[in-house]
């Protein structure tokens, strides 16, 4: 599992989890690197983050990309930085071949190309299942095909067993509306309708 490299343990400055993973697919070495949201400590439950420090993505990339370039043919960034920041990352770090982004909840139809980097977005709240196909030639990323499969709530019957499990898992974390455990104005993420 790859975890956001922008999160460090405060005391040791070590990465929280694996900073990246390497996979070899038909002779091509692919690195998967992840960046979390640098303001998570301001938007999440602070009790869950006492031992963590959150850093800006560009700081982390400056430290780690040289290492990845030596080990991988293709670098894929899983980003929770937001669309605007992802575009800046693509402009600044041409070593990154592909950015799979989130946080801004944007729908980008087909991949966007920024200099040498392909970029797609994940949308939000399980509203769509993204599918990408990477076109690789001579161990280089030459193209990307991206599709969104929309998951409209009205197309699916509720699963009572899954609903009970979700409620059981959520119960200890529920707080008063607008309180520390609230998700703000977003409401029920599964209530997205056509």
UniProtKB/TrEMBL annotation:
This is Calcineurin-like phosphoesterase domain-containing protein. GO terms for biological process: nucleotide catabolic process. It comes from the Bacteria. Residues 164-194 are annotated as: Disordered. GO terms for cellular component: outer membrane-bounded periplasmic space. One of its GO terms (molecular function) is hydrolase activity. InterPro entries: 5_nucleotidase/apyrase, Metallo-depent_PP-like.
